[in-house]
Amino acid sequence: MNWLSKLTPPGVKNIFSKRDTPDNLWVKCPKSGEMVFHSDLIEALHVTPAGHHMRIGPDLRFSYTFDSGDFEQVAIPTVAQDPLKFKDDKKYTDRLKAARTKTGDRDAMSIGVGKVEGLDCVVLVQNFGFMGGSLGMAAGEGFITAAQTAIARKMPLIIFTAAGGARMQEGALSLMQMPRTTIAVQQLREAGLPYIVVLTDPTTGGVTASYAMLGDVHLAEPEALICFAGPRVIEQTIREKLPEGFQRSEYLKAKGMIDQVVARGELRETLGKLLSVLMRRPRDHDAVLKIA
């Protein structure tokens, strides 16, 4: 006990007891280093004042995309776990367990069905928080299930990509998801249904080499890293300094690799306009104007 405690009258310490402070009260902006109040970040759709688009999971993505945040969740089929009995410094089963505890999801893909600007669609979200959004058998089944749901219900498919590439713990079984998802995209085309890709930070590796670059329209959030191999690997390989902003959304748009860079707050309206044109159906807003 220190001398100050001895001088403090009984009961006074209880009046000024230390209050618990939430760990996430403030969030540091990775772009500017500014500390942002968490409630302000929520109101800004997790975009900092400096314009940095924070990585978000399926729950937030669905709430920002669907009208009023209302949607129907579609289950993803169960796949074999740890078919190769893989182990590095941890067992693959332990990594899966930790990722499921952290995110509350079974794997990296989540599917929702709802309305965007009054138009029905299937939305598939890839969660970077689940083992880096890596493409494994479960994620492949998630994509195929989303495509089949869209075909069965005659709806367009929108995907929000975010991945570090293929899941090494599943070896060739992971790589096989690339041609499988490509076939699913072709089936959407044969059914005459739009496939819209929204590239978010980061979208890399085998995901970029497959379904992330097969959309009818490619949108991207600002400053998202979009590539196969990252800039550091390329610099080390060619031993040259890369252009500023290399492999970011704005750079790829200037090179014609993506169609439009869209801020998160404008995505729902942009998607609604695209769906209206591609499906030849009016949005709710368009229908009101027509009636008036």
SSE arrangement:
Elements: H1 3-7, H2 12-15, E1 26-28, E2 35-37, H3 38-43, H4 58-65, E3 71-74, H5 92-103, E4 109-116, E5 119-126, H6 137-153, E6 157-163, H7 171-175, H8 177-190, E7 195-203, H9 205-208, E8 217-220, H10 231-238, H11 249-254, E9 260-261, H12 264-279, H13 284-291
Parallel strand pairs: 5-6, 6-7, 7-8, 8-9
Antiparallel strand pairs: 1-2, 3-4, 4-5
Helix pairs in contact: 6-8
State the strand order across the main sheet: 3-4-5-6-7-8-9
Number of helices: 13
Low-confidence stretches: 286-292
> Shape from CA axes?
globular
What is CATH's topology name of the largest domain?
2-enoyl-CoA Hydratase, Chain A, domain 1
- What's the order of the H and E elements? HHEEHHEHEEHEHHEHEHHEHH
Instruction: Say which CATH homologous superfamily of the largest domain is assigned.
Output: 2-enoyl-CoA Hydratase, Chain A, domain 1
**CATH architecture label name of the largest domain:** Alpha-Beta Complex
Average residue-wise pLDDT: 91
- State the end-to-end CA separation: 76 Å
Classified by CATH, the class of the largest domain is Alpha Beta
Rg calc: 23 Å
Describe the structure.
This protein is α/β, with parallel strands linked by helices. The chain folds into two domains: 18-52, no CATH class; 55-291, Alpha-Beta Complex (2-enoyl-CoA Hydratase, Chain A, domain 1). It contains 13 helices and nine strands. The chain has helices spanning 3-7, 12-15, 38-43, 58-65, 92-103, 137-153, 171-175, 177-190, 205-208, 231-238, 249-254, 264-279, 284-291; strands spanning 26-28, 35-37, 71-74, 109-116, 119-126, 157-163, 195-203, 217-220, 260-261. Helix 6 runs parallel beside helix 8 (177-190). The longest helix is centred in the middle third of the chain and has 17 residues, at 137-153. Residues 286-292 have low confidence and may be disordered.
